[in-house]
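Internal QA ticket QA-208
Title: Verify multi-chain structure generation after dependency bump
Assignee: T.L.

Test input:
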Amino acid sequence: MQIASALQWIIPVAGITAILFALYLARDVLSRDKGTKAMQDVADTILEGAVAFIRRQYTTIALLALGAAVIIGLVIGVVETAEVADTDVFGLQLGLMTGVAFLVGAACSMASGIIGMYISVKSNVRTASAAQRSLVEAVQVAMRGGAVSGFLVVALSLLGVWGIFVAYGGTTNPAIAPFLIVGFGFGASFVALFAQLGGGIYTKAADVGADLVGKVEAGIPEDDPRNAGVIADLVGDNVGDCAGRGADLFESTAAENIGAMILGVAVYTIALTSGWPNPEAWIFFPLIIRAFGLLATIVSIYFVRGREDEDPMNMLNRGYWVVTALSAVALAFVTSQTMNTGTQTGTNGIAPWVFFFGCGLIGLATSIVFVYITQYYTAGSWRPVKEIAEASKTGPATNIISGVAVGFETTFATAIAIAIALLASNWLGSQAGLVNAAGDNVGGIFGTAVATMGMLMTTAYILAMDTFGPITDNAGGITEFSRASEGARKITDRLDAVGNTTKALTKGYAIASASLAAFLLFSAYIDKVNLIIDRQILAGVREAGTRLESIDLAEVPVFVAAFIGAMLVYFFSSLAIRAVGTTAQAIIVEVRRQFREMPGIMDYSQRPDYARVVDITTQAALKQMILPGMVAVATPVIVGVLLGAQAIAGFLMVATIAGVLLATVLNNSGGAWDNAKKYIEAGHLKDDQGTVLGKKTDAHAAAVVGDTVGDPFKDTAGPSLHVLVKLLATITLVLAPLFIR
Amino acid sequence: MQIASALQWIIPVAGITAILFALYLARDVLSRDKGTKAMQDVADTILEGAVAFIRRQYTTIALLALGAAVIIGLVIGVVETAEVADTDVFGLQLGLMTGVAFLVGAACSMASGIIGMYISVKSNVRTASAAQRSLVEAVQVAMRGGAVSGFLVVALSLLGVWGIFVAYGGTTNPAIAPFLIVGFGFGASFVALFAQLGGGIYTKAADVGADLVGKVEAGIPEDDPRNAGVIADLVGDNVGDCAGRGADLFESTAAENIGAMILGVAVYTIALTSGWPNPEAWIFFPLIIRAFGLLATIVSIYFVRGREDEDPMNMLNRGYWVVTALSAVALAFVTSQTMNTGTQTGTNGIAPWVFFFGCGLIGLATSIVFVYITQYYTAGSWRPVKEIAEASKTGPATNIISGVAVGFETTFATAIAIAIALLASNWLGSQAGLVNAAGDNVGGIFGTAVATMGMLMTTAYILAMDTFGPITDNAGGITEFSRASEGARKITDRLDAVGNTTKALTKGYAIASASLAAFLLFSAYIDKVNLIIDRQILAGVREAGTRLESIDLAEVPVFVAAFIGAMLVYFFSSLAIRAVGTTAQAIIVEVRRQFREMPGIMDYSQRPDYARVVDITTQAALKQMILPGMVAVATPVIVGVLLGAQAIAGFLMVATIAGVLLATVLNNSGGAWDNAKKYIEAGHLKDDQGTVLGKKTDAHAAAVVGDTVGDPFKDTAGPSLHVLVKLLATITLVLAPLFIR
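Actual output:
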């Protein structure tokens, strides 16, 4: 009992420890050697571009967020006042609280994105410098630079949710406070959507635009310094992969924390009536688990080490297995200590915490499964990538057809893994014997929530591995640009290949966590709607017996809303993909102008105007992110207002399913195309006579087409879909009062 | 009252009239001039190949269907015996009836496919011959040849459903008989699935394989007689487009007839208790409507005429507007005569039939809307195709990206149109005042059923237009092969372009009807499950109050089943697309062998072995259709047995949504790529200096890549998805007893 009470304090302690540790890592990275003058020059140009983009992007996002906060506050204030005038927290006060929570969530997300990206950009040149000396040192610099992002994202999300929960009366009224902080999750989603969209459009437009105008039109090599678009490409890796994915996972952890706390309220009520000790521990549980995940990650960073001749992926995997093992131990400790049900037991006389410990393990296992599914489909050593490489022999058309077939196929393993995780954790949870006063077993849904928590315990580590990707990618670019030694280039090439894998893994992880988190938020939404309905019934403004008992797909409005939800996923992706094309055009026009008006560029006597391309790309990408972003925000509001609270839940569920599957298709086909190209470049493809079909062959040209097609799939539309799915969930959760009739 | 009774006899009368009319049209077509000796030679080779494929394919399908019928009969027999032993029709008797209905459905579908395709193949040479004389005559020959298919498909489906309904006691016990004939729909779906899969794989494998080995490898032109794969390509147009789409729409009309009759039972019960005259008319209504649709189509065929200098599409449109207008009139007549509710009125004192007449009009309007949506997205004169053509300037990658963006975008208009049709017909129907004893308003769902019927009134005409496509396509090929006059070639080129449009339109129509029909069948499924549950409750083997009241997406098994349903759509498409690649490989290997071992082919001194390529393609395509077919049949059975009757309904609904949207993406992106290529070939694309970028430019080469990618999308995976969606609906409807716990 005492331990359970004390455990709550682990939340701020772990959060602050993680931030301090991130600062320590940042100092460590910054103190390393910055490399040659040539390296620093390139790095400074990248930093300048990234900072310029981030400044402008986050100013835009901040303005949008401010506007959204005011609108949300007013809407909630007016709707709730109109419907019930008789609760503890209501009307304009609730509107104000929601608006403030939204802004705090948005601010935390922006802060972790900005700082994390800043350190990442600083890490790339130091990784390049370290690569001149040692592989292990280069891995460590890149991983520590990435870990700064990882820790900041998770710690700020934890402290933010906890802080606002306490500020909104969580210690005195824990059953109501979780519902008051949903604005925080919405704020985080809102920022994540625009950060991912803007960054994703920027990075791929720069990539495609620079290639088309340089390689195709001017006939100069890829990554040639004469091409002003190339620096924009390197900047893009940072703003898309670092800042974008950071915001994505910030949102995942924040939304999941809040959703799980809302579901915890149902168990809290049972605990209260059953007289179990520490009922509020059921509500704090998600935050405690997350705190232990952070501590486990701190330890694991020290296991990223190895021999000079070792595969760098092994070093990263070593740390991943450590954080997973420690998380499992922490899970056992926390569940056994906080889930105190007195003498009550579940099925077969087993203590309830044991079932939930099992659910948490399912979550941890799911994240491992996803890591391996993604590897199978996108790494060069397995059937799918080989199949695409073989298909390249007969030209770009068969390469594309084969890649689409592989992308579609990947949904199978994804869906089955998620299905098993949900069914198993739901079943295990339902055995814990958590039955409420109405006779409903709430353990199943809570079990799925615990599985999500288990899965997300390793987020900080996964995010560090993800950010490792752009850092090493940039380190490679800097090494090449500055004409560094052959040995250093070999090391950065190896790191870059590993970085490609870790980036792909993170997307798999982000998808799986998005689907579990969405199911959680969906359940939380139903709880919230019924809380409001109950209050309205109590206040006499609504008939009894009108609770939202089911989301009935057989009702026409629910089916129609579900249909529109699935459609939104395609329509949004279409807008995102098209935005890349439009932005790339802007780059092409500018680089063409430079080639024309600055004739000295071609003979290296004139330096291209890098800053101007970066600036133009920035403006175009930010302009292009507005339409898909607005469609994503407006559609659920319109559907919810027109078709009601039940229909919007159907919309949310089916949009989640459709979004997760389409993101899987886009991410994995893109990853597989990319690696099919690398497979051919590495000389693994042979014709019937056994001759190697490498670079400059038709097969390679076909594979390049596939790679280019995959770019906006895997780096713009796919990742934006993860964010979309969670945004839809938080938007409906926050605006629920608007949809109830 | 008298009219309503008499109207039932219109069903066999219209059915037989339509068949006689089809025979008359067939005789008319067959009596036309067969053209030159050279033309007849090519046509005979095509006929030979098509007959060989169809014989082998339908033998395989017949065997599969026989096996399936036995299994279904036994399963239904055993399950129903085990659960209830106390009804009018039960156990092995019900199993036998279901198995027989399945076989009759399968046989009718096969018969209409075989005869229709036979006449189509006979029509192509006569169209080619007519094109030497007159455009109008060529249009009429092709349209009449296509109409044979159209009439047979709709008439056999109508007579089949009516015959088996009467045979199973429909005249004495109309409230039970609709549930006994569901096997007919399943049989039709089963045949359609394999017909569409086998035909779709054959046609696109031949197309892709012949191109790759001829154009790419041997460097000879497309459609060159030296390439043995080219005849397989021409055969493919017939077996894929004619037989496949015929089976697809046979299934739509059959399944929709049965589903609507099941929903009619609910109104019949109300009519009985309210003492309305002719209660059984509510059950016969769908068949009467279909009968009038057939009669309207017969009249409209005579309006396919025009001037020699007219756009052939106008001639076809003229007939379409006639059948639509006549259908609207028939709808008013039939609803006013059969929906006799005595003195009872709906909202505002309006007679109930008026509301349902409105629902039928919504259906007719929806089909017009879909015709125009498809035109906008796939015809060369609008923004989407132009956009893709422009993107071809920067290479195949941007062509593909742009096509995918367009494909994704088309889901928007599709989903909104379906949403409006469902919401509007549901709302209108609910105003009719059809409230049952339990107080439920059943008019809404019945309204959506009437909208579907309205939509499907024009099926025979649409199908005739669709078959017009492959006939004119083949006529063009024959004209070219036989080196006919320039004038004839101009006419067949114009007809071919129109045929491409009509083929695309039919797919849009098939998708829209599939989604409406699926919703209908889904509602019928719930009715059937509750019929069984009620019987079990009555028999005392089940607790009262356990009816299936909602399909609750918030329950984990329902959500998981829905997830798997959406995944199946991708996985099935992946298998279908991959099957095209594998089959194409078989063709490539054989044509390579012929080039190698028969050196006389290249200088025209040796005739290539066309028959062998056709035979090899046939074998490979039939082998490749088994796996996706089995996955489609097995998945719903496994999910239903494991997760239960509620979950499988969620599976069905979400698979329908996902399938309709993915089919939309695949069909429309494929159509748009095809027409972007044609747009460039027609010389509409210009560079910045105003120079035309036509054939043999890089832009054209890029557009060819897009066209090839689109082939398996729009002609294999997309159309197979329509069938899949309906198969899932009929399978769950038939096997419902297996899923109830």
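Spot checks passed. Chain A has a mean pLDDT of 89.
Status: verified.
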